[in-house]
Batch of 3 targets.
Target 1
Amino acid sequence: MIITVAANKGGVAKTTSAVAIAHQLAQAGKKVLLVDLDTTGSVCLSLGIQPSDGVFRLFTGSFDTEDCVEARNNLYVVPGDSRSKMVDLLIRDTGEYYQAQKRLWDFTYPFEVVVFDTKDGLKLQELAISLADVVLVPTVPEALAADAVYEIDAMLNVMHGAGLFHGKMYVLPTKVGLYKEHDAILAALRDSFGASVLPVVPNRIGVAVLAAQGKTLFEGFYAYIEPVREAYRLVILEITE
Ligand SMILES: Nc1ncnc2c1ncn2[C@@H]1O[C@H](COP(=O)(O)OP(=O)(O)OP(=O)(O)O)[C@@H](O)[C@H]1O
Ligand SMILES: [Mg+2]
C-alpha cells in the first residue's frame, strides 16, 4: 500500500503525519518504507537521523534497498536533502517523468507499506501522487489552509481524468484547537468532502518538542500528547481498511 502525504501548503503537519503513520505501522509489524521527498531533510531530523542525498541517488541509479537507513525496527528511510531539488529539475526539464516514475515504483516493491512525505510545487510530489493508493491531505482549520484542500482536490481530479491518479483522497484536520474559526471550517470541509474527512488531530505543543528531539509520537509515554497518538491510530485504521 502506498500512502502519499501531500498539501499545497506549508506547516500543516505533513511530515509529522508521515512519520507518525510510518512508525506506527512499523511497530505493528509491517515492513515500511518512508521516503523523504521534501528538500529540507525534515523527515530525517524528526527521526534523529542525518539528512543525505538518498533521494537524489535513488533517481540517478546509485541507491538500492540495502542503502535505506533502518531508522527504527521495520522502518526503512530514503533520506533526502537539498540535492533532491536537482532531481526535480531533471524530471521537469528533460521530460524523464515516466522513467522516474518507474524507478520509484520499482523501488517500493520489497515493502508492504510505503509512505511519501512531499513538498508542494515539486514534480516529485506529483510522482508520489501518481503511485498512491491513498493521498492524505493534512490541513489546519484556518481559511487559507482550507482553500489549499480545494486546490489539491481539483489537481487530483485533473490527474485522475488524465489517468495519472487512481487512489483515494482523505482530508486530515491537524492542530485542531489552535485557530478560533475551526468549527466553521471543519463543518465546511465535512460538507464538501463527507466521509473522506478523517478524525481530527488536536493541537498539543509537545508534538513539536518531540520532533525537535528526533523522537516520533510513538516513542516514550507522554500523557499530554496521548490524544494526538489516539487520533493517528484512528487515521491509520480508516485509511488502511
Ligand atoms: N498536532 C500538533 N500539535 C501541535 N503542533 C504540531 C502538531 N502537528 C504538527 N505540529 C508542529 O507543527 C510544525 C509543522 O509541522 P510539520 O513540519 O509536520 O508540517 P509540514 O506540513 O511538514 O511543514 P513543511 O511545509 O515545512 O514541510 C512542527 O513544528 C510540528 O512539530
Ligand atoms: Mg514537512
Target 2
Amino acid sequence: MKRVDVLIVGGGPAGSTCAYELSKRGLKVLVVDIKRRIGIPVQCAEFVPIQLYHQFKEFFPEGSIAQRVENMLSLTPWGEVVSIKSEGFVLNREVFDYHIAELAQKHGAEYMLRTRFVGFEVKRVYLERIDTREGFWVEADFVVGADGPRSKVARLTGEATKNFLTTAQVSVPLKVPTKDLLIYLRHYIPGGYGWLFPKGNLANVGVGIDPSYPINLMESLKILLEELKAEGLIEIKIIKRTGGWIPADGLLPLVRGRVVLLGDAGGFCHPITGGGIANAVMSGSMAGKSIDKLQDFEEEAMEIFGPSLWRASEKRKKYMKRWDNLKEIIPKTWIAFEEYWI
Ligand SMILES: Cc1cc2nc3c(=O)[nH]c(=O)nc-3n(C[C@H](O)[C@H](O)[C@H](O)COP(=O)(O)OP(=O)(O)OC[C@H]3O[C@@H](n4cnc5c(N)ncnc54)[C@H](O)[C@@H]3O)c2cc1C
C-alpha cells in the first residue's frame, strides 16, 4: 500500500498551496484530483484582490494575469452607482491554478489526476482511478479536504455546507474596455447579484442567486446580458459557459481528528461576494505551515476569517430571504454600502 505523510483531496488553489508549503518542508505529499488537467475547466469570474499578489508573488507567473482592476462599481435598481476602490487582477485561472500545482511538484509533491476520493478508514483513504474504475488504498498521517464547495471529505467527517449560491456565467466580447468590476444588484437576481468582470477585450458576465427563489438561473443571466447589450457594453456572442456552487454558510468546524478542511470545502468563500480564491490560498498556506499543530491552525483561521464570513452568512439569512424592498435590503447586504459594515 502506498504511504504518504499527507494526502490532499483537490488540486485547486487551497489544495495546491497546501501541497506547496508541505513539500517545501520535505513532507511526502500526494494530491488527487478528478480533473484531467489542473485548472481546467475554470468555474470562476477570476478576480483577486491585489493583497494576494503582494503576499504570494511566486503564484503569479507570466500569463496568469489577464488585466488590472481599480474600482468596483455597484449599480442599484434605483439608479444609484456606488464606486469603491477595489485594486486587483482578473486572472487566467487555468494558468494560475496550474502554476501553483507545478510549484508544489517542483518541491516533490506527487499529483494523481483522474483520481477520485471515495472514503476513509482509520489512517487509510480509498481512491478510485476514474478511467479504469480501479480502486486502491493509500495510508496517510493527515488528510486535507480541499475538494471544493460540495466537499465529500466534509460530508464524511461531520458538518458540511448546507446553503449555497448557484451561478451561471458566460464569456463574451467586451466592447468598451474598462478597469472596473461592474456589480448589478437587480430584482431579477434574487438573493445575489450579477457581474461583469473585464478580461481585456472579453468579459466574464454572470449571475449568482439564492436557489430557494423560484427563478430560472439561465433566464436571469439572459436578462442581464440583454441589459448589458442595451448599454452598449457587450456583444451577446457566447465564447464560453461555466457555473458552479458558492458555499454560503461561513466557516465549518475545520479539524476532524487527522482531517482538515481548506478553501471552499471548509467554507472559506465569502457568503455574499462569492470571493474565495484568496482565502483558499491563505488557508492552504496556513495549514501547510502547521499540519502537525492543527488545533492552532483552526484557532488562527477562526480568528482571522470566522467573524466576517459568519457575519455575511447571517446577513443572508436575516435579510436576503425576501427580495422585495430592495432599497432597504441592498444597503444592508452589499459590501459597497456603509450600512453593510455597521
Ligand atoms: C461562477 C463562479 C465565479 C466565481 N468568481 C470568483 C471570483 O471572481 N473571485 C474569487 O475569489 N472567487 C470566485 N469564485 C469562488 C472560487 O472559484 C473558489 O472560492 C475557489 O476556487 C476555491 O478554491 P478551492 O481550492 O477551495 O476549491 P476548487 O477550486 O473548487 O478546487 C477543488 C478541487 O477538488 C477537486 N475535487 C472535488 N471533488 C473531488 C473528489 N471527490 N476527488 C478528487 N478531487 C476532487 C475538483 O476537481 C477541484 O479541482 C467563483 C465561483 C464561481 C462558481
Target 3
Amino acid sequence: MGDARVRVELGAVPETALWTLYHRAAEARQWGGVLEDPRAVELVDRIDYPFEERFGPGAGLQARLQGVRVRCFDREVEDFLARSPRGTVVCLGEGLETQYWRVDNGRATWLSVDLPEAVALREELLPPEPRQRLLACSVTDPRWMDEVDDSHGVLITAQGLFMYLRPTEVRDLIAACARRFPGGTLVFDAVPRWFSRLATEGKLRSHAYQAPPMPWGMDAGERSKLATADPRVSEIRDVLPVGGPGRAGALIAAAVRLPVLSSRRPSVVALRFADRDRRETP
Ligand SMILES: C[S@@+](CC[C@H](N)C(=O)[O-])C[C@H]1O[C@@H](n2cnc3c(N)ncnc32)[C@H](O)[C@@H]1O
C-alpha cells in the first residue's frame, strides 16, 4: 500500500463503506478483539477523512458488533474455500472490505462488484491482486453475473448491502442468483424492520453522521419467507454470531438466545440454491 494520504469524498451510500471500514479497524485495534485486520487499520490511517468527527470514537460495542458480523462472513468464505479451493468468491457491494487479505487460500478467484465511485476508490487504495477483479456495476444490473466463472463452485457475499436496496430489488436479486448459480450459495445480512424504519425516517444519527435510508429490513424470525423468492432456494441457514470475549461478547450471545430479541435482531443468512440436476427434475 502506498504512503500518501488519500482524500475521500463519497456520496451517501458509498460512504457507508467508510463507516464499516472504520469500525472494523477499531475492532482490529481493540485488545481482545474478534478480528485481525492489519490491512483495515492501515487503510484508515491512510485515508484523509474525518472518521472520528463523523462516526465517533469507534471503539466498544459498535466495533465489536461490526467485528462479529465480519467474522460470520469470514467463516462462510473459509468453509466454502475448504470445500471448493478453486472456487469463485463474488463480493457484492464490497466497498473497502479487506476480507481477501484475511481469508484467501492462494487459489480462489475473487470478483468485487460495487458502484463506480466505490470501485474507483478501491482501485486506488486496494489495487487488485492477480486473482482479484473489480467490476463497476450496480448489483441490480444482471451484467455482473456474466463475469462469474462458477465452474469450480461459487459463493456470493453481500455484506452490509441489501438494506440499501428496495425490497423488490432484493427479491429479484435472490431469484436471479438462484437461477444463474445452481449449487451456489448467497450469504447476506439483514437489519431488522425497526432499524430500517428508523434509517428511512432519518432518525439514525450518531455524532456528525446520519445513516442513509435503508428501504429493506427483515426480522431474523422472518427468514423462512426468503424461500418465496424462488423455488430454487433449497436451504436457508441462520449464520449465528460468536460474540467473543468480555462484556460485549456476553451481551451479543444473550441477544441471540433471548426469544424476544432473537427474532428482531440483525441477522446473517446463507441461502443455498438447488443444483442443476435437482432443478431440472420435473
Ligand atoms: C455498508 S457498505 C459495505 C461495504 C463492505 N461490504 C463492508 O462490509 O465493509 C455498502 C456498500 O454497498 C455498495 N452498494 C450500495 N448499493 C449498491 C448497488 N446498487 N450496487 C453495487 N453496490 C452497492 C456501496 O457502494 C458500499 O460500498
